[in-house]
Amino acid sequence: MPRRTDIHSILIIGSGPIVIGQGCEFDYSGVQACRALKEEGYRVVLINSNPATIMTDPEFADATYIEPITPEAVEKILAHEKETGHPVDAVLPTLGGQTGLNTAMSCYDKGIFTKFGVEMIGANRQAIFRGEDRQVFKDLMLKIGLKVPRSGVVHSLEEGRKVLEDIGLPLIIRPAFTLGGTGGGIAYNIEEFESIVQRGIDASPYSEVLIEQSVIGWKEFEMEVMRDKNDNVVIICSIENIDAMGVHTGDSITVAPIQTLTDKEYQRMRDASIAIIRAVGVETGGSNIQFAIDPDNGDMIVVEMNPRVSRSSALASKATGYPIAKLAAKLAVGYTLDELPNYIASKKSKDGKGYDTHTSACFEPSIDYVVIKIPRWTFEKFPDADETLTTQMKSVGEAMAIGRTFKEALQKGIRSLEVKRFGFGLDKYDKWLNAQSIGAGGPKEEASKGKKESDTNDKTTQGESLDHEWPIEEGKLRRKLAVPSQGRLYYIRYAMKMGWTDEKIHELTNIDPWFLGQMRELVDFENELSELGSIGADAIDSEEAYDLILRAKQWGYSDFQLANITAFADPRVVMASAPYAR
After folding, report:
1. Do residues 130 and 281 lie in contact, with contact meaning Cβ atoms separated by under 8 Å?
2. CA 130 → CA 13, 152, 306, distances in Å?
3. Disulfide check for 25: which of 3, 314, 383, 561 has CB 3.0–4.6 Å away?
């Protein structure tokens, strides 16, 4: 099918200010959409209140309005475009995050789009409502035979108390039509319950919150799904959260593709994703669907759905090479998946009229590497903030890393955060390494002399310091593992160094044993690496050293880490490792 010729001008609603929970990933999506629509010859009209975005650069839209993202501003823009002879025919609401989605919903409900003859493309008002309204979505899931947690939808604190009596504590509170879990949280007692419910009601534009049975500790997964108007559906990317349910996916370390499900479990989740996007009725474009699985018996429940391009869509696009936002824009104007190429995997011919290598967009990406996303927090800028990670997102950014193995991707991801950490330990903020170095003439000996560095005068943005606290006091270590917060990853390593079993760590963190096993292999490998310091400088070019350094590089170790663990700064360590550096 050719693109639609009955529409000529399309409005894109941006995401507005970069805030916690809604950052530059929606600018990334918006830029792709603007480019895709202009390629097809449409007039692109953009509204965004944030001039510091790429999408507001003049070349990306035919008309750019730096205005508040409100229904009133949209109405004025539609009126102005009509007066100047360029009436807007359609609006694409699914690429500007929750702000764009909510604004489009309000414009529809107020009759603004009807007044100016503007059609919602990609996802209509009914599909958005089915995906975002908590009660409607719950009923829809039960209708198609999928499980959801026991829950109730309320619009007042009094209604919330009735749900509390029925289900009991702890409870998860999820406001409707918000991004990043804004206003939500986990209630363990009556005081927390009433505070979070009222906060959620105030945060929701429809004064609606879902109060649901706690499934804290279950494994959490996401699926990025794409659908076209002919009902073709593809799974773009599967994502697994390392942190269990109870931590917002934006605050969790995530891995693509899924690592710990059997093929049967994955196929069941894939079938459920396809059934959900069809039932909700997202006509064209991408959606993000979240699931939870009970690690004890394999029961699967549906957590929620975002009927739009999500924060994870930008990650999935970069992880798989599948341009979700660009293809979503093309699908919205009439194309189907089988008609479009995967623009990343296909190679155009020199004359620009065809493709030397053509990969259809209807093929699901398959990757033979591991992608990790690690969040970054800046709690040091908010000293009064609670660092406990819950269902309300608190991270301000994230880093993505690609590796042939989980170990390599993890270490590269940690380095990419730029928080003075060089990997999974073996740097100057490693409490275990500092303890080994004191009095042993190691590279940290100098740090132990003179003025002692402390939490107050030398802290990374992950909450670590240069103090020489070792071993970690058991009560503190238990707390660091049991309560999700920034820096918990490093305390998992400390627990392993102190002889704690994976079973004990799993009991406190609910992190899947497979991930703990991968971290354990890194910790155990350090014993072998330490042998580099005892073989002597003359033997650094030996086959033994060669094999160790090669494996270290394959597992993501940096030269800085290798220099620290060898206990001497022989430049040949760096030279020998150079061929394997990535």
Report:
1. yes
2. 21, 16, 10
3. 314
Mean pLDDT of 250-258: 94
Rounded to an integer, what is the distance from CA 121 to the centroid of its chain? 26
Residue whose structure tokens are 């690496």: 529
**In this model, does residue 213 exceed pLDDT 70?**
yes
Is residue 131 scored above 60 in pLDDT? yes
Topology of the domain covering 220-367: D-amino Acid Aminotransferase; Chain A, domain 1 (3.30.470)
Q: How confident is the model at residue 179 (pLDDT cuts 50, 70, 90)?
A: low
Q: Pick 420-580's CATH classification: 1.10.1030.10, 1.20.58.480, 1.20.1250.20, 2.60.40.420.
A: 1.10.1030.10
Answer yes or no: is pLDDT of 251 > 80.
yes
Give the separation between CA 80 and CA 270, rounded to whole angstroms.
Answer: 45
Copy the structure tokens of residue 99: 């702000």
Nearest to 464 by CA among 430, 440, 496, 494: 430
Task: Give the three-class secondary structure for 224.
Answer: strand
Mean pLDDT of 405-409: 97
CATH topology of domain 150-213: Dna Ligase; domain 1 (3.30.1490)
Mean pLDDT, the chain, integer: 87
Architecture of domain 9-121 in CATH? Answer: 3-Layer(aba) Sandwich (3.40)
Q: What is the pLDDT of residues 306-339, one digit of tens each?
A: 888 887 888 899 999 898 999 999 999 999 999 9
For residues 229 and 25, give the distance between their C-alpha atoms in angstroms, rounded to a whole number.
Answer: 26
Rg for the chain, CA atoms, rounded? 26
CB 33 within 8 A of CB 95: yes
Whether residue 536 is predicted with pLDDT greater than 80 in this model: the reply is: no
CA distances from 354 to 268, 340, 346, 351, 406 (A): 38, 12, 10, 8, 38
Neighbours of 454 (CB within 10 A): 11
Residue 578 pLDDT > 60:
no
Pairing state of beta strands 233-241 and 254-256?
antiparallel
Query: 3-state class of 371 per DSSP?
Result: strand
Q: Who contacts 3 (Cβ-Cβ below 8 Å, separation ≥6)?
A: 40, 330, 333, 334, 335
How far, CA to CA in Å, does 138 sit from each of 148, 157, 175, 365? 7, 21, 14, 30
